[in-house]
Design brief:
By secondary structure, this protein is α+β, with helices and mostly antiparallel strands. It has helices at residues 2-21, 27-40, 43-48, 50-68, 73-148, 180-192, 210-230, 255-261, 277-280; strands at 153-155, 158-162, 197-202, 238-242, 264-269. It has a 5-stranded mixed β-sheet with strand order 1-2-5-3-4.
Length: 299
Amino acid sequence: MKRTSAFVTTAFTLVLAGCAMQPEKPSQLSEAEERISALEENPAVSRHAPARLTEAQRALGTAQRLHEENAPAEAIEHYAYIADRKAQIAEAETRRALVRSSAEQVEQQRQMTLLQDRERELEQARQEAQQAREEAERLRRQAEEQLAELEPRQTERGVVLTLDEVLFGFDEATLEPGSVREVDRLAEFLKANPGYQILIEGHTDATGPEEYNQQLSERRAQAVQQALQERGVEAERIRSAGLGENFPVATNDTQQGRLQNRRVEVIVSQEGQPPARQEANVATGPEESAQQPQSPPDA
């Protein structure tokens, strides 16, 4: 009995001695274990710094094994330090990768926003261009309809418009108030059709000296030219000429006839400036339509 008690006492003493001989875990090893454990729980580290994490785990495993083998503290602390440094490097690489990824996402979003803005601008530009084309076409049709009201005549010199409502008082080169409507129509047509050029020809009745009437007809043509320019028609598209009393359309023996002779005619052409009557050798009197059949010569 005494022998058994002595054996138990001896074994317990040895266990206590063994416990007393187990060294305390270095703080550097504990810190490395905590840091690496936190990294292992972070999926971003495994995704962005797997090699550094593996190196840290290996160094930590070596430090833990040395601690269990009661190796010198210097060796344990050395590998614990390596493990902690590898873990810090893994953390830094993960942060850099996350920042880089975030910056790439921001740049992608910026590029996407720019692309969307550009697409919106292009679509808006297309819509505005389409609206401008439709508006231009509407104005062109409207101008042609307004021009048709002026009863155009096709001649060898171009389309001739007689502005019946562009009237002048006796011995005057100032447009009467009622002339504005027809000048407006002509201006709108010309602005809607920039390829056209015009020649404005002023006429007078036969009252007064011929030389004076010539000057008066020139001023009347210039008055219409000025009115068109004021309405936005380019000056280089307009030419004016005075023809005096040489091309009447009615008798000068009546007041009504003289009123009709105090007129302005506009020749419209798409083939450059239309020629004047003298340049085209147009006979005295009303200009005939190009479509009108010519009478056969006398036998």
